[in-house]
Structures are given as C-alpha cells and as structure tokens.
C-alpha cells in the first residue's frame, strides 16, 4: 500500500510541474490563450524588414499592444495590431517599424497625431514608414552613392 501512495504522490508532483512549465511557456512567449481584449487596427508597409507576429506595439516608448498578424495585400505588407480598448489613435497618426538597438528585434512605433478624428476598430492608418534597410545603406555608402 505504501508503494502506491508514493507513486501517486510522485505522479501528482510531475503533473503539477508540467502545468507550471506550460503556464511559464505561455507567459514568456507572450501568447494569449483566451484571445486578447481590445480592438484591431491595420497599417500597410512597403517593407516590414523582418517584423514578426507578436512584436511589440509602442506609443512614446510605452508598450501598448502586439502585432497580431502580417499579411500580403496587393504587394504591400499589411500589419494588424491588437490595441487595448481605452487607447484612442488619431487618424493622422504615423506608424513606423523600428529596431531595438543596432541589430535588435523589430517593433512598431505609433506616433500620435493632432487630429480629433479617431480610427475606428478595424480601421487603417494611412501614414506609414517602412523599416530601415541597413544593408542598402551600407551598400550605398561603400559604392559612393551617399
């Protein structure tokens, strides 16, 4: 009988460990299981420069959302961003793709506008700036095109 109790206790401990590991994996990957609360807006770029799904969306350096998906539409990369419900984005805001550090990860920066008209959920930001292509800059410098 004692052997059964010991095996049962070890089994419970292993199951609890697996559940904790799964929880930490989801939290560290910043995934959402139940679906995010908030609304989505879209911005289309000529070049996303390696931006990935799940990348941060910031306003004034503060992380406010995540990139939900990136799709190709008419040869433009359209980025769908998930933002919280209470956050209002003006229709003259500018969206750009930035890099953390010199070769760090990519993120989306929203520069607020001054308009009183707000973008509706599911709307599109018109003013975009694509990612800076370092290879093209270095090539232009090396070959004297700068």
TrEMBL record:
GO terms for molecular function: phospholipid binding; phospholipid transporter activity. Residues 38-113 form the Mce/MlaD domain. Signal peptide: none annotated. It comes from the Bacteria. The chain crosses the membrane at residues 6-26. Keywords: Membrane, Transmembrane, Transmembrane helix. This is Mce/MlaD domain-containing protein. It comes from Uncultured Desulfatiglans sp.
């Amino acid at each position: 009988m004692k052997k059964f109790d010991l095996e049962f206790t070890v089994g419970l401990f292993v199951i609890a460990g697996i559940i904790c590991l799964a929880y930490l994996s989801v939290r560290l990957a910043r995934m959402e299981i139940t679906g995010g609360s908030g609304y989505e807006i879209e911005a289309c770029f000529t070049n996303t420069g390696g931006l990935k799904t799940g990348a941060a969306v910031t306003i004034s350096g503060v992380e406010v959302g995540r990139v939900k998906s990136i799709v190709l539409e008419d040869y433009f990369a359209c980025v769908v961003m998930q933002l919280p419900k209470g956050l209002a984005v003006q229709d003259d805001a500018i969206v750009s793709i930035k890099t953390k550090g010199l070769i760090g990860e990519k993120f989306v920066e929203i520069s607020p506008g001054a308009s009183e008209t707000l973008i509706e959920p599911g709307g599109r930001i018109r003013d975009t700036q694509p990612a800076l292509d370092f290879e093209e800059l270095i090539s232009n410098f090396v070959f004297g095109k700068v």
